[in-house]
Amino acid sequence: MGDSPRQDPDWETHAPEDLLPGWWEAPALHLFCDAVRSAGRKEPAGRPEADPQGLRRRRVDPPPRGKLFQEDLLDAPFWMLACCQLVNLTNWEVAEGVYLLLRDRYRDELGVASAAEENLEPILRRLGLSNRRAKSLVGMARAWAARPPVTASDVLGLPGCGRYAADTWAIFIENRTDVDPTDGKLNWYLDELRQKKIRAETVSSDGKDMAHPQVEGQANRGETEPDVAAGHIPATWCSSQQEEVPTP
């Protein structure tokens, strides 16, 4: 014998007391109960559908300067990753001054690697978490000095470097576009690259040399190209270029 609907947690109504025992075992009533339960259940709101290509990704506003700080540090990959740590929990407008002070004092990864963490903390204090940031920067510099990264996977092994730093390396150092960042500004940059590529391809296709008008018209009429090597040259091709040959 099945459970009474009054014992079913999904059943929200109360059955009349004068119904015969066993009424809930009727097949038709089971179908009705299932329909009631299904109608009362709601799917969780806000669950996005699968979007593997990111076609519905929210459009991100461009950065205030119209470009990312990574674009200015293409020739300084160490400082590019260092700045990825500096902008954590803040933004480039705040972190840029700290970066300039650090680079002016320590120059490169060797200078940061030889620095004492307590000497970095006063510079990093305005960003917050100065102790943690100093430890990560010095640790990354020492790991870099021992073995510089080559790939984005190598970047993930550096102290203080996570997904954002690895995606930055893949995009700006490895020049890859097959990246799916979680950061909005990196997505903005990739969208700009793709749009530029589309525009370049469009201009390239529009700028192709047009075929000879006679050949183009012949192709449109479905005619085959004459065999010039065999001497089959239409007279209309040569009528405008014939030179008067003196008679002997």
Explain the overall architecture:
This protein is mainly alpha-helical. The protein has a domain at 69-179: Endonuclease III, domain 1 (Orthogonal Bundle). 48% of the residues lie in helices and 0% in strands. The protein is built from 11 helices and no strands. It has helices at 27-40, 77-86, 92-106, 109-113, 117-124, 130-146, 152-156, 163-173, 184-206, 213-220, 235-238. Helix 5 crosses helix 6 (130-146). The longest helix is centred in the C-terminal third of the chain and has 23 residues, at 184-206. It is elongated.
Summarize the structure.
With 248 residues, the protein is mostly helical.
Helical percentage? 40-55%
Radius of gyration: 35 Å
CATH architecture of the domain at 69-179: Orthogonal Bundle
Low-confidence stretches are 9-21, 41-56, 236-241
N- and C-termini, Cα separation: 121 Å
- DSSP summary, beta strand count: 0
Number of helices: 11
CATH class of the domain at 69-179: Mainly Alpha
Question: CATH superfamily name of the domain at 69-179?
Answer: Hypothetical protein, domain 2
Structural category is: mainly alpha
Approximately what portion of the residues adopt beta-strand conformation? under 5%
Question: How is the secondary structure organized here?
Answer:
Layout: H1 27-40, H2 77-86, H3 92-106, H4 109-113, H5 117-124, H6 130-146, H7 152-156, H8 163-173, H9 184-206, H10 213-220, H11 235-238
Helix pairs in contact: 2-3, 2-6, 2-8, 5-6
What labels would you give this structure?
single chain, 248 residues, mainly alpha, Endonuclease III, domain 1, 11 helices, 48% helix, 0% strand, elongated
